[in-house]
Amino acid sequence: MSFRIDQLDGIVQFQITRPHIHNAVNFEVMEGLELFLKRLDQPDVHFGVITGEGNKTFCSGGDLSVFHSVRTEQEAYAIHQRMTHILYRLATQPVPVIALINGTAIGGGAEIASACDYRLMRKDAKAGFIQGRLAITSGWGGTTLLQTKGMAYDKLLKLTTEAEPLVAAELEEIGWVTESFEGDKWAAFADFIHKMKTRHPSVAKAYKSILTAPLKERAILDRMLEEARVCSVLWEQQPHHDAVAHFLNRKN
């Protein structure tokens, strides 16, 4: 199994369990995220949390060893469209979700974290929209989500076009990281939600409904899907296939 879902005391935990391959997203992880979203809709759920197994990687994005066989724009868009809908639902569902970033979060992993309400990141970890290194753009709607949530235009443009992973302190400065931590991630998570847990869960749900209202406009989903389409067009081009082949050869 590529993922694990647990529920305890009103908190649903989703963990990618592929540390041997940097917690990369495959089709099974996609299915797991869809199950996670269904669990978040239950009335007894007050918080959600997404993390990766181990202490090295939160999520490294799409599993290139799986998706390298995808060659055409149409094939790529089928995958990107599915993940875009997952991230849109993640961003707009009713309860607060925390990305518990225990290690590297790059590419699609950074997009998943961007769809969450909070990003709690280990101080020595790195994260970034590094898709540009593979001659593509973000393909799951993450850039649109960050812009809609109010990230400064120049900071966002620099983050995406430089395609470099940044440490937690740098990401906190530009407004991507909510808070950084040292030590055990679950202890940090418990500390982070401690005060919120003392309030009735209806309060957080009500505020999230107010603050995510702009995300629920149809135009936002359309923009996210256009982001996925742009990535798919670039995916089909030879520079992307060459970059992936170079990456996989270097890895091997």
From TrEMBL:
Its localization reads: Cytoplasm, Cytosol
Q: Mind telling me which CDD domains this protein's record contains?
A: crotonase-like
The protein in question is named: Ethylmalonyl-CoA decarboxylase
EC assignment: the record states 4.1.1.94
Q: Which family does it belong to?
A: Belongs to the enoyl-CoA hydratase/isomerase family.
Where on the tree of life does the source sit, at the highest rank? Bacteria
GO MF assignments: methyl/ethyl malonyl-CoA decarboxylase activity
Described by its record, this protein's role is as follows: Decarboxylates ethylmalonyl-CoA, a potentially toxic metabolite, to form butyryl-CoA, suggesting it might be involved in metabolite proofreading. Acts preferentially on (S)-ethylmalonyl-CoA but also has some activity on the (R)-isomer. Also has methylmalonyl-CoA decarboxylase activity at lower level.
One Gene Ontology cellular component: cytosol
What SUPFAM superfamilies does the record point to?
Answer: ClpP/crotonase
Top-level EC class as recorded in UniProt: lyase
What does it catalyze?
(S)-methylmalonyl-CoA + H(+) = propanoyl-CoA + CO2; (2S)-ethylmalonyl-CoA + H(+) = butanoyl-CoA + CO2; (2R)-ethylmalonyl-CoA + H(+) = butanoyl-CoA + CO2
Protein's organism: Tetzosporium hominis
Q: Name one Pfam family in it.
A: ECH_1
Q: Which UniProt keywords apply?
A: Cytoplasm, Lyase
GO BP:
fatty acid beta-oxidation
